[in-house]
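Before relying on records like the one below, remember that each one covers exactly one chain. Contacts with other chains, cofactors or solvent are not represented anywhere in the record.
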Amino acid sequence: MSNVLRQPAELIYADDLQALKATDDLPRPANWVLSPQAVVTYIVGGYAGNRFIEPKYIGNRRIIETAVATLATDRALLLMGIPGTAKSWLSEHLAAAICGDSTKIIQCTAGTDENQIRYGWNYALLLAKGPSRDALVPTPLLRAMEGGSICRLEELTRMGSDVQDTLITVLSEKMLPIPELNDSTYAQRGFNIIATANDRDKGVNELSAALKRRFNVVVLQLPNDLEEEIRIVTRRVGEMAQSLELPMPKNVVEEVARVLAIFRELRNGETADGKTTLKSPSSTLSTAEAISVMVSGFSHAAYFNNGTLSAESLAPNVLGAVVKDAVHDKAILEEYLETVLKKRRDFADYYATLTELV
């Protein structure tokens, strides 16, 4: 097993990509390693010859087809959704399947400036020789333009609005001016951008109308169906447990179902039978948070609970996921425990452990 903590998707799923490439005889856009149809098969699952391709994203196939069709044009793709809807996960796999490289990525933050989007300078060379191509330090965006590949921008709305608008020229003209050299870099065929954004976190900056018009927006939703969400969480925690060399408990599906039952009721604001209205906490309690809770529970069970996955292992992580505001969320959880979980025999262990912790 590799000592790398987390490899990019194109290495983890290299066998799937190779199998699809070997059987893919459909037309491909310029600089794509797979046809659009094969990219969709890689994402949602299917067959490459006799090999079954496990789905990387469980959801509406039409949404994935729309995303892939967008990237086959010269229009950029914006994946929107609340935190935890697998935007980054999908972005990475789309880039891996389309150009075989998901590592050209810019993580947008409040501190991201134009130089991190456009290009920077090697100041030693700049002082010694003045502005030149040798002194220019290309960003992932510039390298993607020169190589005709995909650049990923994560959490686009966390950047300041003035920095976001740096992308307008790139998206509309497919070129990046370099005024210091009286030159420009023109995007090669196959270049495109996949951006992710959400409007639920604090510190979000609205996209300008001019920038938003240059993206095709695809909205990702949390799973509506409990069984579907159980499959997603079980699959992902199994992959992560294998990567971290943690044993897979036999009762994982049962515990995933119980954690998700709590999460879904709190985020939906009502019990599963619709008979009791609940207050929702400030956290999104997304599928991604459920995955995080389960993986942390695996670790606790393996090292401190003789490998047994139980409420004792998971409840502290459930508490951490629900209570983001020490006053507001704590009161909501206490009310939920007393009005809902206390009455359920099959959640008695969660009730006891969470009551003790709260």
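Residues 62-219 form a domain with the Rossmann fold fold (CATH 3.40.50.300).
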